[in-house]
Amino acid sequence: MTDTLAARSLASVWHPCTQMKRHEAEPPVAIARAQGPWLYGADGRRYLDGISSWWVNLFGHGHPRIQAALADQLARLDHVMLAGFTHAPVVELSERLAALTGLGHAFYGSDGAAATEIALKMSAHYWRNHGRPEKCRFVGLAGGYHGETVGALAVTDIPLFREAYAPLVRLGDVVPSPDARGARPGESAQDVARRAADALGDWLAEHHTGTAALILEPLVQCAAGMAMHDADYLRRVRALCDRYEVHLVADEIAVGFGRTGTMFAHQQAGIRPDFICLSKGLTGGTLPLSAVLTTDAVYAAFYDDDVARGFLHSHSYTGNPLACRAALATLDLFDETGALAANAGLAAAIDAACAPLAAHPRVRHARRLGMIWAWDVHTALPDFARRYHRHAMARGLLLRPIGKTLYAMPPYVLGEAEVRHLATQALAALDATLAEEEDAAAPASLEGALP
Q1: What is the band of 447 on the pLDDT scale with cuts at 50, 70, 90?
Q2: Is 298 exposed, middle or buried (0-12, 13-18, 19+ CB in 10 A)?
Q3: φ, ψ dihedrals at 359, nearest 5°
Q4: Antiparallel, parallel or unpaired: β 38-41 and 247-251
Q5: Each residue of 244-278: pLDDT tens digit?
Q6: Rg (Cα) of the chain, in Å, rounded?
Q7: Distance in angstroms (rounded) separating the CA atoms of residues 151 and 111
Q8: Residue 13 CB: number of other CB atoms within 10 A?
Q9: Are 301 and 126 in contact, with CB atoms under 8 Å apart?
C-alpha cells in the first residue's frame, strides 16, 4: 500500500516546497492516520510529529474535543457565503479573538499568505481613503517570511522563494533584523535589538512619507532559521511607527497561540499592533483558516456610502463555519487545559532532555522561546537538512531543519516517553548525519588506484 500510494502521489500530486525530482530517490511517506503527537504510516511505522505538521497542530492530532465540535457543526451548517450573511461560529470567534487581542472586526481568509495580503491591502487602502495614496509601500525585516503568493512575496526576504518570481513582484524594502545571533563581541540580545531599531528609525526618517506599513514576525523569524530577538525591539518599533505614522503589522501566523510562551508573541513587549495576522494553530491543525484583526480607526476609514471606499476583498470560503467551530474548540482547550501554564513545565522537561543536544560540540546558538527550540549546526554538508530529515525519519521522528538550523516545534501534548523519544532520536539523527560528513571527508583508499 505504501509503495502504491507513493507512486500514485508522484504521478498525480505536485508536492509543496519540493524539488519533485528528489522524490525519485526518496518517495513521499504515505501517512494513514494520526493520533496525539504521532503520525502513523501506511506501512505501520509511526513518527513523532516534532514540527506539528508545519507548525499548525497544537493539541495533538485527532483531538476528541475538536472532532466533536466539527461533527456537531457539520450536522448544522457546512458553509454559507459571508457576503450578506453571517452565522454563529464566525460571530463568536470574532468576539473571542477581539477579546484576546484588543483588536476587532476580524476579516477571514484561508491561509497565512492570504492574511498577509489582506493586511497589506487594508493598510494601503486606509491611507488612500485618508487622502494619502502615496503611502503605499511596505518594509520588512531581513530574512522575513510572510507567505509565497505574489503580494506576500513582496515582503518576504528569502531569495529561494522570491527570485524566480521577481518580475511579478513589487518588492518591499528591507531593514536589518534584530536576530540575537548577530551580536557583536560584548553585545547582549537587547543591544542587537536597539541597534536594529536605530537602523529602522534612520530608514523611516527618510522614507515614511511613502510607507504604509512595517510587517514583522514578533520575537521569532521562523523561516529565517528560528531567528529570535529581544522584546525591546518591538517596543521601540511601536514607538517609531507611531512617530512616523506607519502601520505596524504583527505576523503571528506561526508564533501565535502559545508558541512563544504567551498567547501572542507581541504581548511579551506590552504593545498592540495595528494589524495582527493569524493562521496555522488557529484551528488546532485541522482545517485551513486565517484571520486579520485591526483597530477601530482602520475599520472606520472604510465605513462610507461610497462602495469604492469599502474593502472589496473576498474568498469563497471566507469565515467557513466548520473552520470557525474548530477554532472555537481550540480556544476552549486553552481555557480548559491551562495550556500556557502547562507548557512552561513541558518546556522545562524538554530542555532537560535536550541538554546533550544543546551541548553537542557541533551545535551553535542553542536557544528556546516558549515551545520553540533551535540549534544551529556547524557542518560543511550543503544538503544537511535533507540528510538529517532522512535520518530522523528512520528513527521515528519528523524534524525538517531549515538550512543548517535544526529546530523543534512539537504539539503541546508530549508525555515523558515522547519527550525522551524527541531528545534521544534528535541527537542520534544528528550524529548519524555528521558521520556522513566525516565519511565524505575521509581520504580515499589507494587500494586498486594504481594502474
Answers
A1: very low
A2: buried
A3: -90, 0
A4: unpaired
A5: 999 999 999 999 999 999 999 999 999 999 999 99
A6: 23
A7: 13
A8: 11
A9: yes
Residue-wise pLDDT tens digits, 316-359: 999 999 999 999 999 999 999 999 999 999 999 999 999 999 99
pLDDT at 440: 76
**DSSP class of residue 183?**
P
- Global pTM? 0.95
- What tens digit of pLDDT does each residue of 1-15 get? 556 899 999 999 999
Q: Are 53 and 287 in contact (CB under 8 A)?
A: no
Phi then psi for 410, rounded to 5 degrees? Answer: -80, 165
Give the position of cell 458553509.
Answer: 79
Q: Where are the alpha helices (DSSP H) in 18-101?
A: 52-55, 64-76, 88-101
The answer, yes or no, to whether residue 216 has pLDDT greater than 90, is: yes
Query: If you ran DSSP here, which 8-state letter would residue 402 be given?
Result: B
- Residue that has been written with the C-alpha cell 536576530 in this structure: 179
Give a three-class secondary structure readout of 310-321: CCCCCCCCCCCH
Joined grid coordinates for residue 293: 484583526
The C-alpha cell of 301 is what?
476609514
Please name the residue that has the C-alpha cell 538550523.
Answer: 405
* SS3 (DSSP) at 272: coil
Count how many residues are written for the chain.
451
CA-CA distance, 320 to 361, in Å (whole number)?
49
Q: Where are the beta strands (DSSP E) in 298-412?
A: 363-369, 372-377, 397-398, 405-408
Contacts of 323 (CB under 8 A, 6+ apart): 283, 287, 288, 289, 317
Helix (H, G, I), strand (E, B) or coil at 267: helix
